[in-house]
Amino acid sequence: MDILKLLSRSSKKPHKSSSAKDEVITKLPSAGSSTNPQLFHDTIPVARGKKRKRAAESLDDRIKEKDEEIDFFAPKSANHKSKNDSTVDIEESKRSASSFDAAKLLDYDDCRQILRSHRLKVTLLPASNVQRKAKKSKKSKADKGAEKKKGTEVYPQPLEAFGDLRTTYGISRRLGENLFQQGYKVPTEVQMGSLPLLLRPKIALGSSMTELDDFNTDNGVNLLAVAPTGSGKTLAFLIPVVDSIVQRRRANDDKRHSLEAVVVAPTKELASQIVNEAKKFCVGTGIKVVGMRKGMSIVPESNSGTTQDSSSEEEESELDDATPKLKSLLPLVRTDILVTTPGLLQSALSSTMPEHPASLPSVRTLILDEADVLLDPLFRDQSLGIWNSCTNTELCVTLWSATMGSNIEELASSTIQSRATRIGLQLSPRIIRLIVGLKDSAIPNITHKLIYAATEPGKLLALRQLLHPTARSTDGTQPLRPPFLVFTQTIPRAIALHSELLYDIPASAGGSSRIAVLHSDLSDPVRNQVMTRFRNGEVWVLITTDILSRGVDFRGINGVVNYDVPNSGAAYIHRVGRTGRAGRDGGMAITFYTKDDIPYIKNVANIITASEKASGMPESEASLQKWLLDALPTPSKKEKKMLKMHGVESRRAGLGKGKDGKVSKGKKSGMQISTKSGYERRLENNRKGAIMGSKRRMQNEMSIEVDRADDDSEWGGIDD
Ligand SMILES: Nc1ncnc2c1ncn2[C@@H]1O[C@H](COP(=O)(O)OP(=O)(O)OP(=O)(O)O)[C@@H](O)[C@H]1O
């Protein structure tokens, strides 16, 4: 059944059976499974010679060939299953050792070709800018070459197929099986580039190691990875962490839980998603993953090794046999992997002595997911506080995001450097930077639209059109199909918009239950409930703030509507990246803008243009015409900063612009909030439906979409 028909006022109530729901969801454009989650398959010009030919072979063929060769993901034999764990572990260790012998590694040219064809750039960054500046005067001019500044490009082994994780990089059989169980077949680009480096840096870097004089990989590497939204970064950071814990537990024959890895994410929603993902990879490994919650505290180090193993993987926190004083204060967490928001962990660390936060000496891996926002002023102190609490000399830090400013890179480098100096490391630790595709573009398989509406009410009307049963998107061809996300600038605006649209979906299609709002003022249980209903396909339109703009993975999302222009280019990339994930096509990103946004919209326009270019779209088909790009004002640095910090002024809570353009204080959210009862609003809504039909016909003739506007026209738009 077509979801638009479900939305039609004349349609019958859909069956609520889960199979019917699944059918609907899988028919949606960006919900189906993508045959290949990779985003880039550039053909690199091939020179003569056998080696290069091999590198230029279709990767798909090679992956297929490799997967056929390898059978280690096959279920264990009955004989194997009956053995006890320690026997299996010993066999595993032997197999791991022999599999290294059998590893077939690519040569330098092959690596380079494959990395390039997948737009992967790997650079070993210089020790840190702080250090560079200090040494500046001593260096000759020749030494100050570009390479010193930008780092050294390296060509590590790419991961061609998941099968190689075991044969070449020796991951545990169980972890390999868990990966296989999840149905992952082809590694995405970020996984191709990062997994070998994180699992076995010496093997991955191979011959390059000799050139990297002061680079030590004995304890692993620090990695900063920038890869498009929805490109599988979570798997890329979880596999190495789970594997390293499995290997260490096996080597020490110690099954007790000791906090070895901390994953920090900016929102509770993302943290809880990571916990769920990690648990899938940990099945049967004995590794415990816990999501940090308010009131939890970390097991004091002295007790971490003495606690009993927890048999229940579901159990998230336990009372330890610590001192009665501590026990009465907070429950204690015993886990191998802790996933947390920065605030929760930082306040747990400083709960007893705020001046001297507790340390986490057993943590060997610190993962900052959405690192740019974690190191942004909003979370910086908390994130750096956690980083500094990880006092283990072998700590490896990995930072992940789809967007990463050079200031964040520098901050990461200098933090690593100063931490090393503080704890007295001999060799200066360095960061490997991995970039997939273009640093500042959205994923290439989304369709972008910019829609101008002269006023706020006009914007609301345009959104209603997208929701309406017979709505067509403004180019008159493609409807915007639910489920979709609608982003607003502030919480009051999200609440107000939700209440405005609550009765727009007819009762026959589920009515107000199909539309929901999610923001940080809601309680945790309500947030969880909304997330679950949206994931299950019960909610079709979710109105939210930037709380859901990063990291959250809803597989079947078909569209993202920026009801309010995002506060920065990065925010646009992350918001629209909720659709078109894992290589799926058909995602649509619609951004409304009004007169108030014109000073800032260039950021978004540039990203759209860059993303379309990156996807190979010819200029003639670009969504934004050149005249528009040229006409849009370029915001100053100051304006950008103000926008990032406060958003568009007229939409801040407490201020709203009326039709007369004057700021009126009575309108809380910058949009009119109705005070009518739901019933009255429903009646009115029915009337509106009829009026909208005729308005729509008029508007279709008005060319409201910017890329269809005539050169000599003013900003075309809905002006009611
Ligand atoms: N190799 C793969 N093959 C197919 N699907 C994959 C693969 N790796 C990850 N995925 C799927 O891709 C989706 C996006 O993954 P993930 O959430 O890790 O993306 P991300 O890069 O972290 O995105 P964001 O930048 O938005 O946080 C998930 O549904 C995940 O299951």
TrEMBL record:
Residues 214-422 form the Helicase ATP-binding domain. Gene3D superfamilies: P-loop containing nucleotide triphosphate hydrolases. Residues 300-309 have a biased composition (Polar residues). It catalyses: ATP + H2O = ADP + phosphate + H(+). Pfam families: DEAD, Helicase_C. SUPFAM superfamilies: P-loop containing nucleoside triphosphate hydrolases (SSF52540). SMART domains: DEXDc, HELICc. GO terms for molecular function: ATP binding; hydrolase activity; RNA binding; RNA helicase activity. Residues 462-625 form the Helicase C-terminal domain. The keyword NAD does not apply. One of its GO terms (biological process) is maturation of SSU-rRNA. Its EC number is 3.6.4.13. Keywords: ATP-binding, Helicase, Hydrolase, Nucleotide-binding, Nucleus, RNA-binding. PROSITE patterns: HELICASE_ATP_BIND_1, HELICASE_CTER. Residues 1-93, 130-153, 298-322, 639-720 are annotated as: Disordered. Residues 55-67, 82-93, 140-152, 646-663, 678-687 have a biased composition (Basic and acidic residues). Residues 311-321, 708-720 have a biased composition (Acidic residues). ATP-dependent RNA helicase involved in 40S ribosomal subunit biogenesis. Required for the processing and cleavage of 35S pre-rRNA at sites A0, A1, and A2, leading to mature 18S rRNA. The Q motif is unique to and characteristic of the DEAD box family of RNA helicases and controls ATP binding and hydrolysis. Belongs to the DEAD box helicase family. DDX52/ROK1 subfamily. Interacts with the U3 snoRNA and is associated with the 90S and 40S pre-ribosomes. This is ATP-dependent RNA helicase.
